[in-house]
Amino acid sequence: MIAIVDYGAGNLKSVKKAFDWLEQECAITSEPEQVATAAKIVLPGVGHFRSTKALEQLGLRDAIAEAINREIPFLGICVGMQWIFDGSEESPETAGFGLLSGVCERFPAEVKSPHVGWNQLQISPSARLFRALPSSSFVYFTHSFRAPINGATAACCEYGGKFSAAVERDRVFGVQFHPEKSGEFGLQLLRNFCTLSC
Q1: Smallest Cα–Cα separation from 176: which of 127, 116, 131?
Q2: Which of 36, 55, 106, 178 is in the most buried spot, having the most CB atoms within 10 Å?
Q3: What does DSSP say about strands 87-88 and 138-143: parallel, antiparallel, or unpaired?
């Protein structure tokens, strides 16, 4: 079962609808026990980074950490991906998960923010989440803060400079864009997540 983590924020119903279309058993849950024992975990996110404080308050952070330690595949979407990092300038007092080093920052003043709409990816050839997908595809974004480029970057995007559009480390994956709103490409990416055996 895929646990879609409900911490009071996130595009939960659209994400669940995408997995339902893929005929994957999934459930929206805020129960730490259900998250800790899931076969895969998805952390959607929409809105302000401070909303991720609820993961600590609800006991979900520890449940996710326990699952990751057991090598359960994890996918963070939008703010859910940003949470994998140390934190975000959007809410400096809110700690991220800290699996990846770096802090998410606001887009520079010379570009319109938020970054909303379709933009093109530059995908690393070794990216497991994007296997069998075109390397220069367009996906749907909506965000005001961006993740830095680092050794875990699996795909980047250009908007006021390059930023990480997707990250991978072991069985932890993150995408800044919304696969559930990115057409057939996004559905194939979610299908890849469901079937990966890394």
Answers
A1: 116
A2: 55
A3: unpaired
Q: Which residues pair with 87 in a beta bridge?
A: 95, 103
Catalytic residue among 78, 104, 157, 194: 78
Q: Which of 26, 143, 180, 194 is catalytic?
A: 180
Q: Is 178 a catalytic residue?
A: yes
pLDDT per residue as tens digits for the range 14-33: 999 999 999 999 999 999 99
The 10 Å Cβ neighbour count of residue 170 is: 12
Domains present along the chain, CATH in parentheses: 2-195 (3.40.50.880)
pLDDT above 90 as % of the chain: 93
CA distances from 38 to 2, 44, 86 (A): 6, 16, 25
pLDDT at residue 198 greater than cutoff 50? no
Considering the candidates 26, 115, 156, 178, report the single residue annotated as catalytic.
178
74-116: per-residue pLDDT in tens?
999 999 999 999 999 999 999 999 999 999 999 999 999 999 9
The residue type found at 17 is K
Among left, alpha and beta (phi > 0; psi -120 to 50; other), residue 113 is beta
Q: Are strands 74-77 and 40-43 parallel, antiparallel or unpaired?
A: parallel
Each residue of 61-73: b (16+ CB within 10 Å) or e?
Answer: bebbeebbeeebb
